[in-house]
Specification:
By secondary structure, this protein is of the alpha+beta class. The chain has helices at about 135-155, 185-195, 195-210, 245-250, 280-285, 305-325, 340-345, 360-365, 425-435; strands at about 1-5, 10-15, 20, 30, 35-40, 50-55, 60-65, 70-75, 80-90, 90-100, 110-115, 175-185, 220-225, 230, 250, 255-260, 260-265, 380-385, 390, 395-405, 405-410, 420, 445-450, 455-460, 465, 470. The protein has a 5-stranded mixed beta sheet, with no helix packed on it. It has a 5-stranded mixed beta sheet with strand order 12-11-13-17-16, with helices on both faces. α2 crosses α3 (about 195-210).
């Protein structure tokens, strides 16, 4: 500690600090544009202060709060080398060099903002917000950057390295959001969703397959789409809803679905989202209450603060992307009810339930959308011998048995077997199904989902005879 005495002025105490980074290392290479810094300040500051993150390569800087001696901070990287400085009280404390390498992987996600015919594409907003198409695209780009970074950080924490998905991007490595006009009017979109959200989901999927977008083959392109036409319309004389099911009856065009090559989510809470990294923290701490008379106050049955609605809707987008990566629902985490904890991951003291379960991380570690696998014939795991065995040319990594879109049980295979007798698996699966569904277990449609070491996925209906204990 340095003591400085100035004539005629009070004694000023200048504390010397050090910063310990716990999630990144010097000269590390990232394959996504949003870098996350989880750090500790030593010694713990007595007074309230902030850490300033300066990317001297791009000339950008942002302040982030230090809480109990810890911080979570972010910076946008440019391709190549990035010099990142950490300042406290206008003093440079530490510097780190990171590299950003734009991935050249064949598989990618394409980001869409879906508008309707005969409509200007604006989304629902309070009067102080910008609801234009361009504003929506900026907000979805921030979301895509968060999704890339979030998955990379969770894979890294699980010991698999910084594997993540890749969104189609510009020459600076920033995700690109395309405006896509569906062939439906806004009224037709509302009617189709009201009849069955899955019907709209299928309609949009077919439109995209027939669209003019390049590189759209399902073997290389998946889509994350945000619907501009979602509207909350509550009669003025009705009380403001409190719970999720009450909110939903006033929604039009509300679609939150994902699977296969497409994830769709609504824009009902997009007015709470950040347009840039500059306002991410302020948006995630916005403690104003949503006006439930005018806007969707869906916060997973929690108090509908602006930040809670942001966390819930952003977490829902991550959840739907998870379905596109062949993940079913789980009891905890992102694929359960833990997706609003994306806020805790971003600015909290810990990550809460913002993660995938361990067996899902193991599955994702081999997924094609997270790896640069060598080309192969695509012959993934499959049944043979009348369903009594599974054959897997490239070695079986793991299996999941699912029912009603929920993981009932899973198996991991560290020795990567090429042949597997499934009798013991079936016995376990039926026991788990009975434990979950009781006497209704035999009526549930079970699916077996597996992945091999080169990312080829098996997803098949598993017909089980609960009387004989054998496959049908």
């Amino acid at each position: 500690m340095e003591w400085t005495l100035q004539i005629g002025k009070p004694l000023i105490i200048c504390q010397k600090y050090d910063i310990e980074l716990v999630n990144v290392k010097e000269r590390e290479t990232l394959t996504y544009s949003l870098a996350r810094f989880v750090g500790k300040v030593l010694p713990k500051p007595i007074a309230s202060c902030k850490v300033k993150i300066c990317n001297t390569t791009t000339g950008t800087q942002l302040d982030f709060p230090i809480t109990s001696g810890c911080f979570r901070a972010y910076a946008i990287l440019s391709p190549g080398e990035n010099a990142i400085e950490f300042h406290i009280n206008k003093t440079k404390i530490r510097k780190i060099c990171l590299f950003y390498e734009i991935p050249r992987r064949k598989q990618f996600f394409r980001l869409l903002y879906v508008t309707c015919m005969e409509h200007d594409g604006t989304f629902q907003i309070p009067e102080w917000e910008d609801g234009t198409v361009e504003s929506a695209k900026r907000r979805t780009v921030v979301a895509a950057q968060i999704i890339e970074m979030f998955l990379a950080e969770k894979m890294y924490a699980a010991g698999y390295g910084r594997k993540t998905v890749h969104f189609e991007c510009d020459d600076q490595g920033i995700p690109v959001c395309h405006e896509y006009q569906t062939k439906l009017t806004i009224e037709e979109a509302h009617d189709l969703v009201a009849k069955d959200p899955n019907a709209f989901f299928g309609h949009l999927a077919r439109e995209l397959v027939r669209s003019d977008f390049p590189d759209k083959h399902p073997s290389q392109c998946k889509w994350l789409a945000f619907t501009s036409f979602t509207r909350y319309e509550k009669p003025p004389n009705e009380p403001a809803p409190v719970y999720h099911h009450e909110v939903q009856k006033y929604m039009k065009g509300q679609v939150v679905l994902g699977g296969g090559g497409l994830a769709v989510t609504s824009t009902a809470a997009m007015h709470t989202w950040a347009e840039s990294l500059d306002d991410l923290y302020s948006r995630m701490t916005d403690a104003r209450l949503i006006d439930g008379h005018r806007f969707m106050a869906d916060a997973s049955n929690r108090t509908p603060y602006h930040w809670q609605c942001y966390a819930t809707s952003l977490g829902a987008a991550v959840h739907e992307v998870g379905h596109c990566l062949d993940q079913a629902h789980t009891g905890t985490g992102i694929m359960g009810q833990g997706f609003p904890d994306i806020r805790t991951f971003l600015i909290g003291a810990d990550d809460g339930e913002a993660s995938w379960e361990d067996h899902q991380m193991h599955f994702l570690n081999s997924h094609k959308w997270l790896n640069d696998h060598a080309e192969n014939d695509g012959r993934g795991p499959r049944f043979f011998d009348a369903g009594a065995k599974i054959w897997c040319k490239y070695g079986l990594v793991c299996l999941q048995v699912c029912a009603q879109q929920e993981v009932i049980h899973n198996w991991l295979f560290p020795d990567l077997p090429q042949t597997l007798v499934v009798q013991e698996l079936m016995t376990t699966a039926m026991d788990r199904l009975r434990g979950r569904f009781g006497e209704q277990a035999a009526n549930k449609r079970a699916f077996l989902i597996g992945i091999d070491s080169l990312g080829n996925v098996m997803n098949v209906r598993w017909e089980l005879d609960f009387e004989t204990g054998r496959p049908l």
